Amino acid sequence: MKKKIKDLPKNEKPRERLLHYGSQSLSDSELLAIILRTGSKNLSVLDLAQNILAEFGSLKKLSEIGIGELVKYPGIGITKAIQIKASIELGRRIFLDKREFFQESIQNPETAYKLFQEDFLGLSEEHLFCAYLNTRNRCLNKKLIAKGNLNIVYAQPREILKYALQENAVKIILAHNHPSGDLIPSEEDIIFTKRVIEAGKIIGLEVLDHLIIGNSGYLSLKEKNYI
């Protein structure tokens, strides 16, 4: 018997998780489950979403599939296929809007701040992001590395380095927020940044900066000689 979404604990339901923890905390399959809304005769919507991603391999490959091919997959009717394609198209248009900036070279803390600024809007807990850059200081991708509470966020350098290898990045910029508005780095902020710098040297990865972002602006650890 399939396990229905309504039978899951509240902290495991995709919609409730998005509401309480933000969309960035959800996995690809959870986000897809929200788009699909309902499952099939034998599968819950979450199981269906997981099976779809397993079948097509990745969100990128799913985006390349036409509606005619999508409806051939068990559990995907014309309505679900249209919902998937419409959501992918919205994401594509957002990416196109931002693509011009991603082609710019990040040369100073101000341009780095603009790269991250929108990511921290409305966040009440600390989040750590990392931008992965090529040799020309152009952003290849951004990743949410970790999220914490009001005062602290925990992360391991290995998570940051893992994505750097996946993106073929040679430089990174870290950024996290202080919901309190105080932009002065804590001792933990400085120690963590130095750990990432040392770990990066092992694989030839340069840490260009670490920004602390608040409602009123930002602070660059590099510019203020904290690192």
Describe the structure.
By secondary structure, this protein is an alpha+beta fold. The protein folds into 2 domains: 5-100, DNA polymerase, domain 1, CATH 1.10.150.20; 109-220, 3-Layer(aba) Sandwich (Cytidine Deaminase, domain 2). Helix content is 43%, strand content 16%. The protein is built from 9 helices and 5 strands. It has helices spanning 14-21, 28-36, 45-56, 59-63, 67-70, 78-102, 109-116, 157-167, 187-202, and strands spanning 127-133, 139-147, 171-177, 206-214, 217-220. A 5-stranded mixed β-sheet has the order 2-1-3-4-5, sandwiched between helices. α9 links the parallel β3 and β4 (206-214). α2 packs across α3 (45-56) and α8 crosses α9 (187-202). The longest helix has 25 residues, at 78-102. The radius of gyration is 20 Å and the shape is elongated. It starts with 13 loop residues before the first helix and ends in a 7-residue tail after the last strand. The model has no long low-confidence stretch (mean pLDDT 87).
Instruction: Say which CATH homologous superfamily of the largest domain is assigned.
Output: Cytidine Deaminase, domain 2
CATH topology of the largest domain: Cytidine Deaminase, domain 2
Strand content bin? 15-25%
Strand order of the largest sheet: 2-1-3-4-5
Q: Write down the oligomeric state.
A: single chain
Give start-end ranges of low-pLDDT stretches.
none
Average pLDDT rating: 87
CA-atom Rg in angstroms: 20 Å
Q: Indicate how many domains the architecture comprises.
A: 2
Number of helices: 9
The SS-based structural class is alpha+beta
Q: Using DSSP, what is the number of strands?
A: 5
CATH class of the largest domain: Alpha Beta
